[in-house]
UniProtKB/TrEMBL annotation:
Domain of life per record: Bacteria
Pfam families tied to this protein: GntR, UTRA
InterPro entries: Bact_HTH_transcr_reg, Chorismate_lyase_/UTRA_dom_sf, Tscrpt_reg_HTH_GntR, UTRA, WH-like_DNA-bd_sf, WH_DNA-bd_sf
Keywords: DNA-binding, Transcription, Transcription regulation
Keyword Transcription: yes
UniProt protein name: GntR family transcriptional regulator
């Protein structure tokens, strides 16, 4: 590892160290950084300065802290397209980008919609539904925790399907003739709760990217509500819009 830094330079030491670590990551394909004391000794600086450099790389998404593993090098971010012309499933979106997606079913059960979702999505509180919780791994990394809710009548079909290896949307198209027409997305920055942190190997309170979606058929009936939590610095959302639409019209947002 190159440890030379220029103490006469106007560039702060922590930024020089951050650049040196970046170069080393690119040249030697590091998967995990040495400890803070080791880096402080290598660069001849304080642990505080090393910590600043690491914080810089964390904020850029080049490093990520994983519970039980320490600070590791983050692989390239996954670009998740939010499709405005077609209602697609998460697995279809990721697979279309050539990513290696593995799905693990964590829970399949009868449930009811919680107050949080019913208020946001305009559905009836206490509505009986079929709940499907899944973990999505991309290139072996646990990056997505997804809980989906379907009308109660879908349970008898989905419970007998190989959901880990097949798109639920395609299953519903084939077995129920479901034809997706529209979807409403809610995207927000949030923090990992206890369950999310356990599933994604995060610490409680770590940042996550939240996506909530409700999908409708052509007749206006909903067929899926999804709560998704993603490791925040592993994803980029991409949008494609057909024409420019001004955010401000007549002085109003």
């Amino acid at each position: 590892m190159k440890c030379d830094i220029d103490r006469t330079s106007s560039i702060p030491l922590y930024r020089q160290i951050a650049e040196s670590l970046k170069n080393d990551i690119e040249l030697h394909s590091l998967s995990k950084l040495p400890s803070e004391p080791e880096l402080a000794n290598q660069f001849g600086v304080s642990r505080m300065t090393v910590r600043q450099a690491i914080t810089e790389l964390l904020s850029e998404g080049l490093l990520v802290r994983v519970r039980g593993r320490g600070t590791i090098v983050q692989k390239r971010r996954v670009r998740r397209p939010l499709n405005f012309t077609e209602v697609t499933s998460l697995s279809d979106d990721i697979n279309s980008l050539g990513e290696n997606v593995e799905s693990r079913v964590l829970e399949q059960t009868e449930s009811v919609l919680n107050k949080h979702l019913t208020e946001k999505l305009g559905l009836n509180e206490g509505m009986k539904v079929y709940k499907l919780a899944r973990l999505r791994l991309i290139d072996g990394r646990p990056l997505i925790y997804q809980v989906s809710y379907f009308p109660e009548s879908f349970a008898s079909i989905l419970v007998h399907q190989d959901i880990e290896h097949n798109s639920v949307l395609k299953i519903l198209k084939r077995t129920r003739g479901v034809t997706p027409e529209t979807a409403k997305y809610i995207v927000f920055a949030g923090f990992a709760d206890r369950k999310t942190s356990e599933v994604l190997n995060l610490n409680p309170g770590d940042p996550v990217l939240g996506i909530e979606k409700i999908s409708y058929e052509a007749n206006g009936e909903w067929f899926e509500v999804v709560e998704t939590r993603c490791v925040a610095n592993a994803f980029e959302l991409t949008f494609e819009i057909g024409r420019f639409y001004p955010l401000v019209q007549n002085g109003n947002l």
